[in-house]
Amino acid sequence: MIYRNFFSIKYDDNARPSNTGCADKVAPVIPKANSFSNLMEVITMKKQALLAITIAITGMSPAIQAGDAAAGKTKSAACAGCHGANGIAGNKNYPNLAGQNEGYLIKATKDYRDGNRKDPMMASFVKGLSDADIANLSTYYSSLK
Ligand code: HEC
Fold first, then answer.
1. Exposure of 61 by Cβ count < 10 A (0-12 exposed, 13-18 middle, 19+ buried)?
2. Which of 8, 44, 71, 81 is the most exposed place for a label (fewest CB within 10 A)?
C-alpha cells in the first residue's frame, strides 16, 4: 500500500525491511495530512508566522518615524562647526551627514550617545540629546542634498 504524506514523500509498506521486526521504528516519522484538520493546522501555522513577521516589521517602524526637520535644523547649530551648515563637512576628516539614510543617522547618533560607538569629539555633543532630538536631527540631515 502506498501512503502519501503532506510533503508528497511516498513510501511503500512493502518496501519496509520486514525481517528486522521493528518496521515501525524504521519507517520515517513524517505527519500525514490525511485529515482535513491536519491540513488546517498547517495553514494556521503559516498564518501565524506571517502575522508575527508583520508585527515585527510594523513594530520596528517607529525607529525610523519621521522627525521634525525644522526642529532638527535648529538643533543642528551645535553640529555645524564640524558637519557643516548644510551637512557637508568643511574638514575632510569629518563625515558628511547630508542625504545620509535617516535610520542610519538615528542609530549612529544614539550609539555615540549611549557609548556603543566611541568618539571623543562626538560624545560631548550628543550626550544631552533626547530620542526626539535625534529623530529631528536625522530627518533634517537626511532631507539635505
Ligand atoms: C567637534 C566636531 C563635531 C561636532 C560638533 C559634531 N560631530 Fe558628529 N562627528 C564628528 C566626527 C569626527 C565624526 C566621526 C567619528 C568616528 O570616526 O566615529 C562624527 C560622526 C557623526 C555621525 C556618524 C556619521 C557616519 O557616517 O557614521 C553622526 C550621525 C554625527 N556625527 C552626528 C552629529 C550630530 C547630530 C551633531 C550635533 C548634535 C554632531 N555630530 C556634532 C565630529 C563632530
1. exposed
2. 8
Task: Read off the C-alpha cell for 31.
Answer: 505527519
Q: What are the extents of the domains in the chain?
A: 2-63, 66-143
pLDDT of 3: 53
Query: Which CATH class, in words, describes the domain spanning 66-143?
Result: mainly alpha
**Contact by Cβ (8 Å): 97, 145:** no
pLDDT tens, residue by residue, 22-60: 545 555 555 566 676 666 676 666 766 655 655 455 555
Are the CB atoms for 105 and 97 separated by under 8 Å?
A: yes
Whose C-alpha lies nearest to ligand 1, atom 34?
79
d(CA 19, CA 36): 35
Give the residue whose CA is nearest to atom 18 of ligand 1. 119
